[in-house]
Write a structure and sequence with these properties.
The protein has helices at about 20-30, 30-40, 45-55, 60-70, 95-110, 120-135, 140-145, 150-155, 160-175, 195, 200-215, 225-235, 290-300, 315-330; strands at about 75-80, 85-90, 150, 180, 190, 245-255, 260-270, 270-275, 285-290, 310. The chain is α+β, with helices and mostly antiparallel strands. Helices cover about 45% and strands about 20% of the residues. β7 (about 260-270) and β8 (about 270-275) form a beta hairpin. α1 runs antiparallel to α6, α5 (about 95-110) packs antiparallel against α11 and α7 (about 140-145) crosses α12 (about 225-235). The two termini are about 35 Å apart.
Length: about 350
């Protein structure tokens, strides 16, 4: 496995807000949401039958959850004008795609160092919540680049209090998303585990689902999302031993009134990534460019070439295929690929 030694790049961790992919993952972090989706995959159900299928929670709780899922377009509530009138719930196309996306999350949960954990259980809820919080506060972006101590994270975090940051980092360590790394300075540095790096699969699948089914309600894909995705994935690349060169992967980011670029530049020697950076200046042997949606289509396995290639096209195509194989294509074939 190639290892990426990204040059330290100053970042400012944002206050915890919903980030790209966060809405979909948040839905699947709820055990009751998962049970509702699974119960409806075999066909329409009345409110009473649906409540029975998911374990008979309080009626008021069911109303809150089904109303929220209906408002998001995940469920459809149909009233039949019979006597007496009847009501049934069914999955919409968005709901069916979310259920298929949950298989990507489940596949990642099955890779847990503690052993497979079922989606919808208490363990998967804790893990998914820790991933969402780490993603939303950009802790994931930071530790994907290099090990950081809590003190170092607090210095680049201008919004989250030290105790809150400590809790989030502690939660990520508890569920094996980060691990201690030997360091020389004060405090213990923490680095991304391989399991956290493989979380790129559900993160990409969740973002893809949101952009297709909730474009107006989900967070836009930003610079730090793109940088985090590449920094997570690059060390997972398996490349031919004969491959060498400098490759730039760039994504067009819409920020303000003018678009700009975000991505990574990597150095490859004998099929191993020897260095990478989120800086995009300088020459590159191969250049791959496209919008965020074009990248999602490409890594999700949509037919055709959706990205622009420059320079050594064979080198660029080989890296794209390696990204797909490394896990960014886990949504392939699950109905989440953007149209």
């Amino acid at each position: 496995m190639g290892r990426c030694k990204a040059r330290p790049v100053p970042i400012i961790l944002a206050a915890q807000t919903k980030r790209a992919g966060g809405t979909a993952l948040d839905l699947l972090a709820s055990p009751l949401n998962v049970r509702i989706l699974q119960a409806l995959q075999e066909g329409d159900l009345s409110p009473l039958d649906l409540r029975r299928r998911v374990g008979t929670p309080p009626e008021s709780t069911m109303r809150v959850y089904t109303r929220a899922l209906t408002e998001l377009g995940v469920l459809e509530r149909r009233r039949h004008e019979t006597f007496p009138p009847t009501v049934e719930y069914s999955l919409t196309p968005a709901g069916s795609a979310l259920l298929k996306m949950s298989a990507v999350l489940q596949a990642w949960l099955d890779l847990s160092p503690e052993g497979p954990m079922p989606l919808g259980g208490p363990a998967s809820k804790s893990v998914t919540r820790a991933l969402i919080e780490g993603w939303s506060t950009n802790i994931v972006r930071a530790v994907a680049a290099r090990p950081y101590s809590l003190t170092e994270l607090s210095k680049i975090n201008v919004h989250t209090s030290y105790p809150a940051l400590d809790r989030r980092l502690g939660a990520m360590r508890l569920v094996n998303l980060v691990e201690a790394h030997p360091g020389q300075g004060r405090g213990t540095p923490y680095r991304a585990t391989e399991w956290l790096r493989r979380a790129i699969s559900p993160l990409v699948a969740a973002t893809t689902w949101e952009r297709k089914y909730l474009p107006a309600k989900s967070a836009r894909i930003g610079r730090l999302d793109i940088e985090a995705a590449f920094l997570l994935a690059v060390p997972l690349l398996e490349l031919p031993s004969s491959l060498r060169g400098r490759v730039r992967l760039a994504v067009e980011v819409q920020g303000g009134t003018t678009p700009n670029l975000a991505g990574t530049t990597m150095e490859i020697e004998s099929g191993a990534v020897t260095a990478c950076s989120v800086r995009l200046e300088g020459q590159a042997d191969a250049r791959v460019f496209g919008s965020a949606m074009a990248w999602l289509r490409q890594v999700n396995g949509a037919p055709g070439l959706h990205l622009e290639l420059g320079g050594n096209q064979d080198l660029g195509k080989t890296v794209i295929e390696a990204l797909r194989a490394a896990g960014l294509s886990s949504a392939e074939g699950n109905g989440n690929s953007p149209s």
